[in-house]
Amino acid sequence: MSASTSTPSVQADDEWSPLKAVIVGRAGRACFPAAPPAMIAATMPAAHVGRFRPSSPFPSNIIEKAEAELDYLAAILRTEGIRVYRPPIGIDWLAEDGYTGAMPRDGLISVGNTLLEACFAWPCRSQEIELAYGDILRDLEKEDPRARIVRRPAETFANTLLEEDPRDEKNPWVINNRRPAFDAADFMRFGSVLLGQYSHVTNQAGVEYLRQRLPARYRIEMLEVDDPNAMHIDATILPLRRGLLVYNPKRVTNAALRAHEVLEGWELVPYPFIPQEPGWPPLYMTSPWLSLNTLVLDGRRIIVEVSDDQAAGWFEQLGMTCIRCPFKHVNSIGGSFHCATVDLVRG
Q: Hey, which of 131, 141, 164, 245 has its CA 20 to 30 A from 59?
């Protein structure tokens, strides 16, 4: 079949059109990321910061169950007719001084026919995309000559983000602007507009880097958020379908959202509950606001943690059909359904 008529390997403009192809992560031998202490203190739950040190694996029973949950999610998506790509089994992140392959959304974002690799701020994540997803990226490029894969260039690996810089006197974030840094999970797609946030892992140089590499007609707008520990936007806003967005009222206001023309005419609904910390397993790296970190399949169906009856009941009131999936152990090592996936094709 010719490239002009075959199914694309990369083509996504938003967060809600029918999902047709996706990457689902694998945990491997996941470790607490040994990022510099200042980066950890700025973003991680205070109760667990002592665990973020070199050669510190997550408890093996949690990793084993997280891996099973990721497999279960992949099986659900295949059952729904979605093409699923997976990284290699059993990557030893302890041997690589790394973190995990369970959270691909942090490191990859699809915009139109382009799949871009993030310029991670945390040095311990510098090889994560190549080790877990490099083969997938090369396969996607081979499958479809229209796909454009943008890899992270060498100059963005410089370990300069914590150096003192007098120009950063009013900078509220732990990282400076010495080199581009961004996590892909600090951005969401709304058609031709990406809404993003500055954070402890995304700086102005990173936003400009991303802006310069977007396909024609796409642009970035930065959302004003109130989150002193900001790291990733996907527990702050959740577009369920065109015209309906749920948001975390503790982190962003209706007025801040209304300032963006792309949301003109949208119904903006604050999440009405305060999510509670689970008893077990611990949320080592996140807040309970993972209730908003979901995966929308087509504007009507949404993946929800199997035990989260509160969120599921509320999403159903908004006209969504909830597909339940166990994910508490994935939550424990750093994310939920949005974090653990990368949309490749929607539409």
A: 131
Q: φ, ψ for residue 269 (rounded to 5)?
A: -120, 120
CA 122/CA 125 separation, integer angstroms: 6
pLDDT of residue 121: 98
Please tell me which residue in 13, 144, 183, 343 is annotated as part of the active site: 183
DSSP letter string, 181-228: -B-GGGEEEETTEEEE---SS--HHHHHHHHHHSPTT-EEEE-----T
pLDDT given for residue 167 in this prediction: 67
Catalytic residue chosen out of the listed positions 14, 119, 339, 343: 339
| Distance from C-alpha of 1 to C-alpha of 193, rounded to nearest angstrom | 32
Active site residue 232: yes
Q: How many residues does the chain have?
A: 347
339: annotated active-site residue = yes
Residues 92, 29 contacting (CB under 8 angstroms): yes
> How does residue 168 score in pLDDT terms, banded at 50, 70 and 90?
low
